[in-house]
Design brief:
9 strands; 15% strand; 4-stranded parallel sheet; 12 helices; globular; 42% helix; alpha/beta
Length: 297
């Protein structure tokens, strides 16, 4: 049966734990697996990318496979070919399809018609591959994920959605602090709360109190430039800085999925200081996604 990875909810708790353990193994020995030998993976990018593009392309190659990178405008989708036809054709050529796009409905429709795994590399609603790397980073720093507290401060966006869903599955207490106007989607919150400990607040310091990790994302995401000034104004009290870290645990780490805007959502000290795990987090995109590719393909 073909398995897709669109929100992270496709994995049960045991599978998620095993995937994170496998990611740790692959990090210790990057050349230890040739699971994709003789196989190809299409990587479709309708949005610009640094970490996603590089980590997936390198990951497929390190597993012995061939990454087929397709940028915006390089497929007949740009000239009106249907998602259904695209899925049917790609399924005849490759062994999996990764998609970085805008509407989440795009990956859902591709998955509906594809006979090979479809992986959500990012949509406007979910960023589950990022959450896998985030959980691996927590596991590295604290030895486990269960029982940890993670406070996300900022816009209730796709990253917040994926942290709630996958964090809850991994036994992490996830507290999301946002202005009321920028809260996460209520339906996603309800699904996450059914999986584990997830709560919302509008007080960043309340969320950060006693947390093992503080996490933030850009204040204005790609495609959200309209109304950016108002969004920055709303998010000003939600900056991840030394003051906010001071109310977390003494061993708390700072996380950011990048790209970062120093002086906006995160301070220079939080991003580059001794408590930052941001660049370990970025590296772990590679290892977590290799474990995911092994599982699905």
């Amino acid at each position: 049966m073909t398995r897709h990875f669109l929100t992270g909810e496709e994995l049960d708790n045991a599978e998620l734990d095993a995937l994170l353990a496998r990611a740790d193994e692959l990090k210790r020995d990057r050349g230890s697996s040739s699971a994709l030998a003789g196989r190809s993976v299409a990587l479709v990018f309708e949005r610009p990318s640094t970490r996603t593009r590089i980590s997936f392309e390198v990951g497929v190659s390190e597993l012995g496979g061939h990454p087929v990178v397709l940028r915006e405008g390089e497929m007949q989708l740009s000239r009106g070919e249907s998602l259904r036809d695209t899925a049917l054709v790609l399924s005849r050529f490759v062994h999996a399809v990764g998609v970085r796009t805008g509407p989440h409905a795009t990956v859902e429709e591709l998955a509906e018609h594809a006979s090979v795994p479809v992986i959500n590399m990012l949509t406007a609603e979910h960023h589950p591959c990022q959450a896998l790397a985030d959980l691996q980073t927590l596991r590295e720093r604290f030895g486990q994920t269960s029982g940890l507290k993670l406070a996300y401060v900022g816009d209730g966006n796709n990253v917040a959605h994926s942290l709630m869903l996958l964090g809850a599955k991994a036994g992490v207490e996830v507290v999301v602090a946002t202005p009321p106007e920028l809260r996460p989607d209520e339906a996603v919150v309800e699904r996450a709360q059914a999986l584990g400990s997830v709560s919302l607040t509008d007080d960043a310091r309340e969320a950060a109190a006693g947390a093992h990790a503080l996490y933030t994302d850009v204040w204005v995401s790609m495609g959200d430039e309209e109304g950016a000034a108002r969004q920055r104004e709303l998010l000003e009290p939600y900056r991840l800085d030394e003051s906010l870290l001071s109310v977390a645990r003494p061993d708390a780490i700072a996380l950011h999925c990048l790209p970062a805007h120093v002086g906006e959502e995160i301070s220079e000290g939080a991003l580059y200081g001794r408590r930052s795990a941001v660049f370990d987090q970025a590296e772990n995109r590679l290892h977590a996604q290799k474990a995911l590719l092994e599982l699905l393909i």
